[in-house]
Design a protein that fits this description.
Layout lengths: L2 H27 L2 H6 L1 H4 L8 H21 L3 H6 L3 H15 L9 H6 L4 H6 L1 H20 L3 H25 L7
Helix pairs in contact: 1-4, 1-9, 1-10, 4-10, 6-9
């Protein structure tokens, strides 16, 4: 397997695994169900029982591919630095979080150009910061020291996230038997 394909697949697995774990934790800790039901937020965010929300973790495979392909050209410089994970985290937060080019919730553009309340923008930041930090550390560690102790739990978590997502979509569409 080429080094590019291996890197992209590792980035994909790290992204899906960290996205799923951070999302579940944030959903519970930040009470997204209540937040997304607020009239000022419901016009933007789908309720947690929506089929597209269930599909979200599986759809992160596409985002993981995009991240892996986008990071590949700069990866050699990040990989060789012992603190390359910290630089990667800074890039992710700066370019995809605060500095996102669209008016996304939590971004500077979103704060300026949307009518969403500031508390909504800020409420998602712990999830973003933790997910991107763990993603950056895991990917850097895995690439610098490939080993099963890291590969197995990351791949297993990513696979579990995709399976849970597919089952969630099937349940939302009424394709699973009810007990």
């Amino acid at each position: 397997m080429s080094s590019t394909i291996r890197f992209v697949l590792r980035a994909l697995a790290c992204h899906v695994a960290t996205y799923f774990v951070a999302g579940i934790a944030a959903m519970r800790l930040a009470d997204y169900a209540t937040l997304f039901a607020r009239p000022d937020i419901a016009v933007l965010m789908r309720p947690l029982d929506d089929v597209w929300v269930a599909a979200g973790p599986a759809m992160q495979v596409l985002r993981g591919l995009v991240l892996g392909l986008a990071l590949r050209p700069v990866w050699p410089a990040l990989r060789t630095s012992p603190r390359g994970w910290l630089a990667l985290w800074g890039l992710l937060v700066g370019l995809a979080g605060l500095g996102a080019t669209g008016a996304a919730p939590g971004s500077l553009e979103g704060i300026i150009y949307t009518v969403l309340p500031l508390d909504f923008h800020l409420r998602g930041w712990p999830e973003v910061l933790v997910q991107t930090l763990v993603f950056a550390w895991l990917l850097h560690r895995w690439e610098r020291s490939p080993s099963r102790w890291l590969a197995v739990p990351v791949i297993a978590t990513a696979a579990l996230a995709i399976l849970a997502s597919v089952l969630g979509v099937a349940a939302a569409l009424g394709l699973l038997p009810r007990s």
